[in-house]
Structure formats: structure tokens, C-alpha cells
Specification:
- The chain has nine helices and no strands.
- It has 192 residues and is an all-alpha fold.
């Protein structure tokens, strides 16, 4: 008679992600992007650095772009949240620091650069990150209008582009983004 296993059967997890493995993949992708750039970032290298099988990555993410988007979304929420109230000048100062100093900011810049060559990357970046974040930024500016910190005559999208555009341009070209530039953009574009 075969031995009976007294241990309860563990439910199969199927495609459920192991959280430690998921985080290892996200951190590995982020680190490797900063170290080697987008073009040299491969699923094989991510798997090796994270200590997971390539099949695990492909089961969870269809491409390195999706891994980087997950990294960007998660890290942005932790390290560069949109303030619940006020702080518009501080938000844009934080944005400048984010895109010039934070590894997640480097992920954003890499995805923006890749979007210039890949319509699919551009669409995914907009759908998953830029579009949802833009909604929150519009709300931030709308609250600034209500409080009198921001001009009431602004087109919110044009104003966001006018402030963020020069910051992203300087970061993409490797230039610094001094606080005085951010303050000048805020004072010129947003102030009443």
C-alpha cells in the first residue's frame, strides 16, 4: 500500500507571479538599463541578473518594454508621486531630479527615446504611463488654479508640455536641469 501524504496538497499557482522573482526582474532590468542602455538590454541578461529562467520572464512579460514600463510605474509611484495637494513648483523640481538622477527617470528617458523608433513602444508608453500620469498632473494644475497658485487662463495640456518639455529635452541630451530653469519655467508659464 502506498504511503499517504499527510501534507495538504498545495494549490497550483499557474501563472501567478512569485513576488520576490517579480521584484528581482524589475530591479535587474532597471539596473541593467542604467549600466548598458536600452539597446544592449536583453531578456537573457535580465534573467541572469535576476536569477530566474527566461521562460519565467516571457510568461509574465511579452517584451523588455513591458518590464521597463512595470519598473517605471512602480518606481514613479514610490519615488515621484504626484502630490495630493499644492506643491506644483516642488513637483516640477522633483520631476527634474527624477529624470536626471533617479534610475527610474533613466527608464522613462530610455522609453521616450525608443518610442521615436517604435510606434508600439510609443503607444504602450502613452497608454500605460504618460496618459494616466497626465490625468493626475492635470488635476494637480486644476487644484493650483482653484487655489490661485496657477493662472486661470491656462490650457492645462499646453502648460504641462511647456514646463515638462524643456526639462525632458535637457535630460535627454545629458544636460543638467538647474533649479533656476525649473523656477523660471514655473514663473513664466504657470504663475497668474
Amino acid at each position: 500500500m502506498p504511503a499517504v501524504n499527510s501534507q495538504p496538497r498545495r494549490a497550483r499557482s499557474g501563472n501567478q507571479r512569485d513576488e520576490a522573482a517579480r521584484l528581482a526582474v524589475l530591479h535587474a532590468a532597471d539596473d541593467l538599463l542604467v549600466e548598458h542602455g536600452f539597446a544592449r538590454l536583453t531578456i537573457e541578461a535580465i534573467a541572469r541578473r535576476a536569477g530566474v529562467a527566461k521562460q519565467t520572464i516571457y510568461r509574465w512579460w511579452p517584451s523588455k518594454v513591458e518590464i521597463l514600463l512595470d519598473t517605471l510605474i512602480e518606481d514613479s509611484e514610490k519615488r515621484f508621486p504626484i502630490p495630493a495637494e499644492g506643491g506644483i513648483r516642488g513637483y516640477f523640481r522633483g520631476f527634474a531630479r527624477f529624470v536626471t538622477r533617479d534610475p527610474a527617470g533613466k527608464v522613462l528617458l530610455a522609453l521616450i527615446a525608443e518610442a521615436q523608433h517604435s510606434p508600439e513602444t510609443a503607444k504602450r508608453l502613452h497608454d500605460r504611463y504618460l496618459g494616466p500620469r497626465r490625468e493626475l498632473e492635470r488635476d494637480l494644475l486644476a487644484r493650483g488654479i482653484e487655489s490661485g497658485d496657477v493662472s486661470t487662463t491656462l490650457d492645462l495640456d499646453a502648460a504641462l508640455d511647456a514646463v515638462a518639455g524643456p526639462i525632458v529635452y535637457r535630460a535627454l541630451t545629458g544636460a543638467s536641469v538647474p533649479r533656476t530653469l525649473v523656477d523660471a519655467l514655473f514663473d513664466t508659464v504657470l504663475k497668474p
